[in-house]
Amino acid sequence: MWPASIPLDDLAQRCAEQTQHFNRRQDSDPRFCFELLRRALAEGVADAFAWVCSIYENQVTHWVYRHPSFDRTGESAEYFANAALTQFYFALRGPKFEKVPTLGQVLAYLKACVHSAVAQYARDQVKAEWVTLDEQAAGPTPDLGRAVEASEVWAHICRLLTNERDQRLAQAVFVLELKPSEIVAAYPGLWRDQREVSVELYRIRRRLRQDAALRATLGVPAAEPDL
Description:
single chain, mainly alpha, 70% helix, 0% strand
């Protein structure tokens, strides 16, 4: 039976079963979950998106816990899971869903939304806490000090990489910790394939290694192959 002809509840059940197979590293059929996502996003079926949230909630929450900035946010994993799913919905609804023609690309974009939600919150939190501490003429706590330092490093990287495309790739790799295949899926239209991502990333790393201040901050010698 073609997924497009299956009633919604049955389709969701098939998707849940195939997701379990995939998580157990068993053979799985991605067509059912892709069709569920298509109905939820391309067609805007509310019940379909409710099923998507139910099926992928555990995976999204797992990604939240794995984010290196999550522990210092003070928020729950559910908070970021909801934020990521909301961002995911508005980013791919309607005709925009055509940008992600495979299930792997859809889920890679969802993972990117998770990382973006946590990273942005952490950056905003650091700025707010820094302002408050500055007004009180108090020094930062050790954890906040590391967070501020990381924020300053990122600002310096952006000054070195003046091209917005380069900044986006640097953020995807150094902040969101995405793999080349995930970057291609998360930013359709910017990079054709994994090889193009790798080539541009190599150029960016060489550019950053040439900066003595950045090397000194990160403790990276000039001959080090990677940051």
